[in-house]
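Fill in residues.
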């Protein structure tokens, strides 16, 4: 899967190696072992050592083609084995691409969450919850760069490279129509607080997803700044909280010209997934 950043970046880089090279790669976090079960092959010998006999026998008899192991040769490792005799291997490989991608993607996200949220800023998270009725997990290193209570806008920033997380909320939003033009206008207003950044029509695409158990409109694409003559990738989400009669917009962007941007976009996705809306609990006055 390719992601424009603006250069196309892959979520995973696949490196093909020979069976005799496996010893040098055994400690890699992600491994896929493909075998046609030729009796005297190096791959087949590895399979015998990697799986139990009953599993190997099922692969030979074509009862099972896929085997998944965790922590096989290293802690945190995910090993996927695809094996079938002869021509059956081709059909088995063709049957599992989405499953294998989702498996590695999910496992990568799990590992990222363990690192990203190992130390979070509970005090700031509680501040947002008690004062604004929402919160999300804030990894160590982010600072509160903007807190505009009048316009309901918060900006969290981290440098080296520059990363920004904006959260904007709108009360009494029951009749608000969340669509392409509306979201782009909101994103451009939020992005303008970072060197006048903006998102151009044609530089993004929309898709429906879910956050905090609510349907959310996701914008994925590119931002740019005419002031600084720079740009990069972005993610944004519009979330309707019908229970509390609110709409939220989360906008994230990164400027990292000297490195891969996909890992930072993945971090934004994991942070956005922790978003929670509570609404403000106001005491009744007599």
């Amino acid at each position: 899967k390719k992601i424009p950043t603006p250069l196309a970046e892959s979520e995973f880089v696949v490196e093909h190696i020979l069976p005799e090279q496996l010893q040098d790669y055994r400690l890699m976090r992600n491994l896929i072992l493909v075998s046609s079960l030729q009796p005297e092959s190096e791959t087949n010998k590895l399979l015998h050592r990697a799986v139990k006999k009953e599993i190997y026998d099922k692969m030979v008899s074509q009862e099972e083609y896929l085997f998944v192991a965790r922590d096989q040769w290293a802690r945190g490792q995910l090993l996927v084995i695809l094996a079938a005799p002869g021509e059956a291997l081709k059909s088995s490989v063709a049957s599992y691409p989405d499953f294998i991608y989702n498996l590695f993607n999910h496992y990568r996200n799990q590992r990222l969450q363990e690192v990203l949220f190992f130390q979070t800023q509970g005090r700031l998270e509680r501040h947002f919850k008690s004062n604004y009725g929402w919160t999300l997990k804030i990894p160590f290193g982010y600072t509160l760069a903007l807190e505009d209570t009048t316009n309901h806008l918060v900006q969290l920033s981290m440098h080296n490279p520059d990363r920004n997380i904006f959260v904007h909320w709108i009360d009494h939003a029951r009749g608000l129509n969340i669509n392409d033009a509306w979201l782009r206008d909101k994103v451009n207003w939020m992005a303008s607080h970072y060197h006048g950044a903006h998102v151009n029509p044609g530089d993004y695409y929309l898709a429906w997803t879910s956050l905090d158990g609510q349907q959310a409109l996701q914008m994925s694409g590119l931002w740019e700044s005419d002031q600084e003559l720079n740009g990069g990738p972005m993610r944004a989400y519009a979330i309707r909280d019908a229970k509390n009669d609110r709409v939220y917009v989360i906008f994230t962007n990164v400027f990292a010209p000297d490195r891969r941007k996909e890992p930072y976009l993945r971090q934004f996705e994991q942070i956005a997934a922790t978003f929670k809306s509570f609404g403000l609990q106001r005491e009744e006055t007599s």
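DSSP finds eight helices and 15 strands in the chain.
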